[in-house]
Amino acid sequence: MLCPMRLTTLFLMGCLLAEAPMPESSPGPDIMTAPEIEQTVEVQPLPDSVRNRVQTELSNYLGIPTDQINIARYSHETWFDGCLGLGGPAELCLAALTEGWQVEAIAPTGESYFYRTDLTGNQVRRSTLDNNLPPSLEARILQTVHTDVTEAEGREPALSITQAQTRVWDGCYGLPSETGDCPEIAIMGWRAIVTDGDYHWIYHTDNLGNTILLNEAASTNTVIPNLITGPMSGLSEADTTFQSVSTGGGADKAREVVVLDIDGKLSYSQQENQIPEIDS
């Protein structure tokens, strides 16, 4: 049996709880909203320990002196596991975010090799991926396209980057200039193809993603283009802003080669039907 004092205490506590304002519940995360990415990426110097380790690794791989290895592009990255995102199928990787770097090393032949490292260069792995677009830059490109499509069409696109290649741009990023003049400077960057399955956007960027520009003339709703790594058909790469090879489906395997000049005009196009491949 509860005594009167006990009942009075419980009554007073109940009144205090009833009068106390309830805390406002915070809204849960919107899973349809693109992740927030900082507006400007600050240039961070590559640590000497990382630079030296990458040069040493490629030097040993190619059997040449380290002073013949040049470091080109690099970016600060956060890898999703302890294997720097390059673990093999039978390899156990620590499931922990690992800060580090992606570094492009250039051999005397001009061939590029991409390496992933931790922050200090104690762990270094050479990438054998076909697409070495830095993950931080990929995220910024996808966010840009996501925002543009959402604002223009009011829909949530399912986007992916199908191809990317390194580029050295002029001051106009390889795109037509309103004045016709472009600063004669060298800007290290990338060209990437983004698609939602129906439309394909071509973007020109700097190395960090502070500048991301749409190549409207090259963007298309036809089959997904394949980027060409060098000039073709006697055309100088300096005179072209976009080159692609698009292969359609069907038995005839129609193949279209397209080259756009620096004004975005079609300067070369060739269509041909390839002999269909027959499985043996």
Give your account of this protein's structure.
- The chain is α+β, with helices and mostly antiparallel strands and 280 residues long.
- It has 3 helices and 12 strands.
- The chain has helices at 4-19, 48-62, 135-153, and strands at 70-79, 98-106, 112-118, 124-126, 160-169, 187-195, 200-206, 212-214, 226-227, 240-247, 254-261, 266-273.
- The protein has a 4-stranded antiparallel sheet, with helices on one face. Strands 5-6-7-8 form a 4-stranded antiparallel sheet, with helices on one face. A 4-stranded antiparallel sheet has the order 9-10-11-12, with no helix packed on it.
- A hairpin with a 5-residue loop joins β7 and β8.
- The longest helix is centred in the middle third of the chain and has 19 residues, at 135-153.
- It is globular and about 50 Å long.
- Mean pLDDT is 77; it is low at 1-35, 231-241, 246-253 and 261-280.
